[in-house]
Amino acid sequence: MHHIKRLIIALIILPLLFIYITKLPAIYFLFILMIVSALAQYEFYTMYGIKGLLRFTGILLGMLILYFIFIFQYSLDPQKPFVTDLAAIGFLIVAVIRLFYKRKPESSLRDIAPVVTGIAYIPGLLGFQVYLREQGFDWIILLYGCVWASDSMAYLLGSTIGKRKLYSEISPNKTIAGLFGSILGGAIGALIFKYALADMLVLSFINAVILGMVIGAVSVIGDLVESMFKRDAGVKDSSSLILEHGGMLDKLDSSLFAAPAVYWTAMALRLI
Predict the structure, then answer these.
(1) Which residue pairs from 199-208 have beta carbons closer than 8 angstroms and sit at least 24 positions apart in sequence?
(2) Which of 66, 77, 253, 266 sees the fewest Cβ atoms within 10 Å?
(3) pLDDT tens digits along 193-206
(4) pTM here?
């Protein structure tokens, strides 16, 4: 019943997102990424008890990083380590604010680490979706379509034939069968979108399968990483923002890892 409710919500939200992504210019996709990033960072910082100025600074820096990635993406080359500069600047700002915001040195690393991790983890990884969107909205559709197909097939196989646990210390419900289901679902999803988006997304059969399998495998890792953070923080969901789906971070976890994996794989295959 729980999965059925999630499916109903997805069937309502996904068509709206599809229209938004495909009918509007790339700048509008940036806007929604910035909003999603801010919400997910808020949840992440709440999980770890980061409040006040440090939380606000982390969220603001995350949104600015996404904006600057969008503006300066054409400058990304080995001679201009733009992303490295952003990471360094972000750390410097957070460290200096902590220095003067709290005069006692105790717990300074425990204050700074979650803020910097939240910036790298959420807007830092979301930035790869900016790169993918610049190649065409079809890459974003492929990314999220395959993540959804991976999740659905993982649930189907995991709940029916899954017995052996994948990583019980982190996620007791995940099984090895579910992992294979995720990889299979990603491959099937990629093949579906290869033909559905044939006029825009030029992929060979093999390249589509490779991309889909990468998405399926990495999606599970992304889910496990978020579960690790949640268990460390002692929470079940990052929030209850999206009702049956949990929080924004709960919905992003797989795509956060899948986007850079797709981008790097597509570059290795000379697709972009």
Answers:
(1) 200/136, 200/138, 201/136, 201/138, 201/139, 201/142, 203/271, 207/269, 207/271
(2) 77
(3) 999 988 888 899 99
(4) 0.89
